[in-house]
Specification:
The complex is a heterodimer of chains A (118) and B (110). Chain A has 118 residues and is mostly beta strands. Chain A contains no helices and 11 strands. Chain B contains no helices and 9 strands. In chain B, 36% of the residues are buried. The chains are: A mainly beta (118), B mainly beta (110). At the A-B interface, strand 5 and strand 6 of A face strand 3, strand 7 and strand 8 of B.
């Protein structure tokens, strides 16, 4: 059974750094793209970016290029989303998801709530 | 990449059919047969309902169907049920391994 388990909720201050994680199991982690989706409070889904853990090829939406960094550690089947300097506007639920059957996200993590507040 | 355009809301009575549109461009919806649809209930992760324009994942009722014409994709829910009340998002492949979501549609069962 494919499972994506994300790290727990975070409360941070503006300017702080953060790295959240997503551990995959039940499938070949290195063989399928895994990505991140943002959902700000009361708003819609936004496609952020995606990484192929097999060779770390990474693609970003233009809206998120330079704002976040996506990485993966294939030795522990875990993908990451990180910020070097958080802003209040980064407050959102972040989902990881993987593409297995097609060029779409078919399996999703449970979400990680990130709250940035002074 | 701009978000795909969806109606803000649609509604229908139990048993009726509703259709949600998703309009993009030739660089996304119109350029590829990789449109998917997600259902999201409040406080829950999105659930894949349709992929590759019209394919249903295992376990998704056949009341849900998808289609595409030109730069517009559509999701139809036939025989609307109370549990179908949720937010629905389309998503299209946009080349170079990237994708773009729609603006989202709230489906209300009257």
């Amino acid at each position: 059974e494919v499972q994506l388990v994300q790290s727990g909720a975070e409360v941070k201050k503006p300017g702080e750094s953060l790295k959240i994680s997503c551990k995959g199991s039940g499938y070949s982690f290195t063989s399928y793209w895994i990505g991140w989706v943002r959902q700000m409070p009361g708003k819609g889904l936004e496609w952020m970016g995606i990484i192929y853990p097999g060779d770390s090829d990474t693609r970003y939406s233009p809206s998120f290029q330079g704002q976040v960094t996506i990485s993966a550690d294939k030795s522990i089947s875990t993908a990451y989303l990180q910020w070097s300097s958080l802003k209040a506007s980064d407050t959102a639920m972040y989902y990881c998801a993987t593409r297995i059957a097609s060029l779409t996200f078919d399996y999703w993590g449970q979400g990680t709530l990130v709250t940035v507040s002074s | 990449q701009s978000a795909l355009t969806q109606p803000r809301s649609v509604s229908g009575s139990p048993g009726q059919s509703v259709t949600i549109s998703c309009t993009g461009t030739s660089s996304d919806v119109g350029g590829y047969n990789y449109v998917s649809w997600y259902q999201q209930h409040p406080g829950k992760a999105p659930k894949l309902m349709i992929y590759d324009v019209s394919k249903r994942p295992s376990g998704v009722p056949d009341r849900f169907s998808g289609s595409k014409s030109g730069n517009t994709a559509s999701l139809t829910i036939s025989g609307l049920q109370a549990e179908d009340e949720a937010d629905y998002y389309c998503c299209s492949y946009a080349g170079s391994y990237t994708s773009v979501f729609g603006t989202g549609t709230k489906v209300t069962v009257l």
